[in-house]
Amino acid sequence: MNASIAHIPGDEVSARVRLRTGKIDGAVVLSPFFWNFRDDMWQTTHHVARALAARVPTILVEPPVQWNPRNAEFRLHRIANGLFGQRIRQAGEGLQVFGRRGFPFGRVAPLRQFQTARNARALRQVLGETGWRRVLLWHSFPYDSEILTDAVDHDLFVYHCLDDSPREEERRLVDRADVVFCVSRTIVDKYKARNPRTFLLPNGVDLELFDPERAALAPRPADLPASGRILGFLGYVNYHVDLELLVNVARAFPRDHVVLVGRVPAGHTAPEGPQRAALEMLGSLPNVSILGFKPTAELPAYLHAFDVCLIPFLRNRFNQQCDPLKFYQYMSMGKPVVSTPVTVASQYPEACSVAESDEEFIAAVADALERGDSESERQARRAVARAHSWPALMDGAWRIAEGMRHAGGSREIAR
Question: What percent of the chain lies above the pLDDT cut of 70?
Fold first, then answer.
């Protein structure tokens, strides 16, 4: 049976022999995401960092600045920050952000290694000035990260696996970690043989923000269709999304509207081949609106207007093992959901419909539109969301991590 943060009794953790004493007094989060919300949405490590900062002072370490205009993470303001910006900046109560410095040609290995080592020295200096004595290192970015990992004199090392990665570096980090958290059970199964201290930590939702009652009071976004039913998608319109399926959905419901809310990235994460052609086709259909990026605070108003929420991911190994944030946001708003096969959707058949083919997907959308929605169904979805609130998830993760620390990393707990 997979170990999960919901399945480890508190007395089992606390009863272990306490080999490390004293409380964690600081945390460092190695993040794959920048702390930037003017043109990006909140992601998993943002929520993790905020939850940790509610307990102990926390520093989130941003990824390297991307200089290639074709990279999805390229931003001119990030280049300026990478050259001249502050090393450390305040992001909220108890939370600071460490910005890496960088120069062009980072793809050249010697230069990349030099820049990583320079940032590691700067991070070590920043941490030395904090006075922290017992540091939690929370790691989610297995890309040339081991020098930074070694720069953090940590008392507890948590590796948090956010998706399926083929990188050998990730395997080494899993082997080193005191605790491994994975967002899906399939990834737990992948790593528990390497490190039995591996647990399920699914993604979550900000219940206060994605509150259907509050969203109902907000003005309807002006760029939504003025009338008619809306089949909505929230998230990056990237190479993980089955845009050909969305073309078929739009054509199957010509009197309804298909609305996509989220950035269409350029570069290596952009749709390619037939999916690029499908994206262009979507843009030409009269009942499709591609609205682009919206700040996270505005998303509940869009979700409130959706009649059916869609997770049209391509059917592949990566997507089957992912744990999309949008699922929990949809659940929190109590909306009907139709999804292609992703692990989390399959776990909640009472709360959403899972379709194996385009025909099944379209039929499930039709059923959701025609059958309507009952209060009991909405409450069932809300119950799923409540079980995945970020505070609740991180409370469980903290308890497991602290228990493993006091146990000296005992491998027995995960059996």
Answer: 87
User: Which of 304, 281, 283 is CA-nearest to residue 234?
Assistant: 304
Confidence of residue 123 (pLDDT cuts 50, 70, 90): very high
Sheet holding 88-92, edge to edge: 88-92, 95-98, 58-61, 26-30, 135-139, 156-161, 179-182, 198-200
pLDDT tens digits, one per residue of 25-82:
999 999 999 898 777 789 999 999 999 999 999 999 999 876 565 666 656 556 666 5
Check residue 13 and give its pLDDT: 34
Q: For strand 230-234 and strand 198-200, is the pairing parallel, antiparallel, or unpaired?
A: unpaired
Residue with tokens 């926390």, as numbered in its chain: 58
CA distances from 215 to 226, 298, 342 (A): 17, 9, 27
- CA 384-261-222 angle, 5° bins: 110
Question: For residue 195, what is the DSSP state?
Answer: -
Render pLDDT for 193-216 as a digit per residue (tens, 0 to 9).
999 999 999 999 999 999 999 999
Query: What single DSSP character describes residue 314?
Result: -
From CA 106, how far away is CA 71, in angstroms rounded?
13
Spell out the residues 6+ positions from residue 240 whose beta carbon is closer than 8 angstroms to its own: 313, 314, 318, 319, 322
**CA 62, CA 42: separation in Å to the nearest integer?**
14
Burial tier of 213 (Cβ tally within 10 Å: 0-12, 13-18, 19+): exposed
Model-wide pTM > 0.90: no
Q: Alpha helix (H) ranges present in 259-316? A: 274-284, 299-305
Predicted confidence at residue 115, as pLDDT, reads: 85
Backbone phi, then psi, for 257, in 5-degree steps? -115, 135
The neighbouring-strand residues paired with 159 are: 139, 180
For 85, what's the count of Cα atoms within 13 Å in the CB-facing half-sphere? Answer: 20
Mean of per-residue pLDDT scores for the chain: 88
Structure tokens at 404: 């493993």
Q: Are 23 and 134 in contact (CB under 8 A)?
A: yes
Q: Exposure of 151 by Cβ count < 10 A (0-12 exposed, 13-18 middle, 19+ buried)?
A: buried
**Alpha-carbon distance 298 to 209, whole Å?**
9
Torsion of CA 295, 301, 302, 304, to 10 degrees: 150
